[in-house]
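The material for today's practical consists of a large collection of protein records. Getting from the letters to the tokens is the skill we practise here. To make this concrete, we reproduce a full record directly below:
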Amino acid sequence: MASRLVLCIGDLFIPDRAPDIPPKFQKLLAPGKIGQTLCLGNLTSSGPYNFLRGIAPDFHAVRGDFDVEPFPAQQAQQSTSHSQSLQDGNTAQRPAAGAMAPLTKIVTHGDLRIGMIHGHTIVPPGDADVLLMQARQMDVDVLLWAGTHRFEAYELEGRFFINPGSGTGAWSSGWWAEGEEPLPSFVLMDVQGENLIVYFYQLKTDDKGEENVSVEKMSFKKSTQ
């Protein structure tokens, strides 16, 4: 059974709240390794868009509450290096307003239906019952959402819910105890038929100030009942 590696990332806020995607993440997200990219919104400059489009040609995005659009597809084809296109976009003029990405989107991998939503339309924010209602309404097996800048993954009533956190560790109000800050994170999903293996990547800094990438693994199997 062929598998496909899918990147789930969102809430980048470059350069508004974070200078860049961490270099250790950029190295992991080199082109040629990932088959599909799912972005959950808040692309606030064209550089991150170009970077994500360069990871995999199969790119899908939903609208966050601070996106600046459109980002023409041809921008991803500029003759620049993968990392350089990201850096150039941080200082480039923002694109003019235009057609916006959808608030929700569904991608399918065989019989597995994956729903995408940023999360700013979920009230109360991050509420498990409301997310379950959203998943039922979209008729999806997996629901990806964002907005809290905090990683979450859990199964509820036969459906799987994933929040990849913020790809840059951008600050966010209302979700963190005093003294806590978001950590950069993203999710890779290995889709194998009706099975989903989730790898959660997080950038942590140790007591010596050295940055290290930690990886946690979870799994989900679609119910056949």
Q: What stands out?
A: The chain has a mean pLDDT of 84. The first strand starts at residue 4 and ends at 9.
